Amino acid sequence: MRVIVALGGNALLKRGDRPDADTQIANVNIAVKTLAKLAEEHELIITHGNGPQVGMLALESAADTNLTRAYSFDTLGAETQGMIGYWMLQALQNALPGRQVMALVTQTLVSAVDPAFENPTKFVGQVYEQAEAEKLARENDWVVRQDGQYWRRVVPSPAPQRVVETRLIRKAVRDGVVVVCAGGGGIPVVRDAQGRLSGVEAVIDKDLTASMLAEALDCDAFLILTDVPRVMKDFGTPQQSEIGHTTPYELRSIDFPAGSMGPKVEAVCRFVETTGDMAAIGKLDQAVEILKGKAGTIITPSATWPLISTL
Ligand SMILES: Nc1ncnc2c1ncn2[C@@H]1O[C@H](COP(=O)(O)OP(=O)(O)O)[C@@H](O)[C@H]1O
Ligand SMILES: NC(=O)OP(=O)(O)O
After folding, report:
1. Within a domain: 209
2. Is 122 a catalytic residue?
3. Mean pLDDT calculated for residue range 99-111
């Protein structure tokens, strides 16, 4: 089977953790224990988040008095792909001796006139109390929004249209390479009338890019691995209940929060609706069981659809 996994930002940096490299490398090694098991059985493509990391690098760049202008978010996104890609590459190579692994810096095409540029929604960096976030917004010309009980900086998050390096990724996967790519949703780029690429100030949602890439690479299954065992109905209320096997139709009838579960649900629904194949959302350490339909929230076109693992 060909499987694509989108690894949540929480897997790399738990809420409240300091963003030290050692902490993130330790978390990558934990994640790779599970990912290596998938790679032993399947062709594997891995994407990852970068929200906390890209926000941290933006702060560092803005504080650098040697710079005329702080680095833009496309360049910062590339930095996060290099940094997280390197950690994953090394951990995967150590866990899968003899297997070819590569971590790619990849770009994702977006539309220059995407309305998202006028309405920033993507959370980046650390959380703040409301008063501090609003002060920082005034001082630094940021937009900030509420994220759960805290506040965070937000930046534009245009819709992904195509991973520029899709053909190269497909070729590597066919050759048996475990590919880490499209980290942070990919470096956001636009094409001009001459076909030339250039970067834009944005951070793309990694789950939406992973969904599009899953389709473009003809993946049999799309897994979003995060820190909850299943998607919940009535999340955060006394009536909350876990959703097991479900359909895009059912998921689309439920409201999910924009900054967290919303894009994940949209990403899995799009993949299942377009391809008829299986997607799932669940906990990182249950990835093997999720792929067998024995854990997580499993999404297929209908409730009686046979799982690919049983075909
Ligand atoms: N309906 C829901 N079911 C389960 N989790 C939900 C739901 N709504 C919001 N969440 C939150 O979504 C979080 C996962 O989203 P997010 O933090 O963006 O993940 P990641 O960084 O791993 O991609 C969970 O930790 C949970 O707090
Ligand atoms: N780019 C992105 O979606 O990152 P997170 O998953 O960390 O928010």
Report:
1. yes
2. yes
3. 98
